[in-house]
User: What shape does this take?
Amino acid sequence: MALALSVGAVGCGQSAPATSAKSSTAPTQAASPTAQPKLQTVTMAFPIFNLFGSPILLAQKLGYFKAHGIDMKIVTLQGSPASNGALVSGSAQFAATNSLGVFVARQKGVPLVAVVGIDQGEPFEMAVSKTAAAQAGITPSTPINTMLKDMKGWKIGVSSPGSTPALMFKGLLSQAGLPASWVTFLGISSGPGMVTALGHGEVQGYFTDFPTPEEAVAQGTGFVAFKLNSVPAIQSIQGDVVVATDSYARSHPDTVRAVAAAIAEADTFLAQHPHQAAQDLVGVFPHLTAAQLEQGLADYGWQKGGAMTATLWQNAAQLYYQWHIVPKPIPASAIQAAYTLEYLPTP
Assistant: This one.
């Protein structure tokens, strides 16, 4: 996101459209409560609007939040510093981020805790200009480390120089034995802006998540060079999560349990019924077809029941240090404090 080693943006996309009422196409829908108690209104902050938030958006559309007594308001802010500020001020009670964002926020004194998992891995993709790639001799079959070496001096578009995509790209450079200065990161706050910058030659590539790389393919200006989840070590780390502050979670346990339960249901639905989930999300992502959504959703390791494991969090902490994304090892106590299973539904 906006600040170096700030809580990372999970992708790059557009402002969130209003979510619609419960879908009539879902094979199973949340059961209506027998009573009609007043709903508890809470706000979820997205650092940026994209597919990573699909379980939350699906829980909204299919009525899972309301079935658990929650009136969920979803807002998209300009990066995680803004969403963190909203959590601390109380203008938002929940936010979507990722494991790196949680670790870094806690290191900076922002007491976030992950209460439900969204996915494992980080599904960022590298889109490159056809012209720049031809000049560098890069093709989709070029090994990633070779590709990175051939990108010397390139300008790479990211949501911000301190965002998670930028930090992960720097980690890839480190693994290839290259300095962070090998490329220049150019902050571009929207997906369409990245596509335009690539087409105009203002950047030679950009690193973000679906569907922005595919839009360059559709326009004929670029191709997807590699996907981060093709790196084996990435596949086994905790990815995106929903967080609250420690104090809010302790003082509002029933609300946190209700929100976690709704998102956990949607996570499971995404994992078990990806085709139907894509159909249900068409109205939420109006610029994408159901087929495109299904393609994008397939790149995510949705966590059934919102389940997070100690191994995934430990793997994430280890990778962030080994890739020089964080300056020192993350101690076991910090890993344990970063997440909790207390509010998840019992399997």
Notes: The chain has 16 helices and twelve strands.
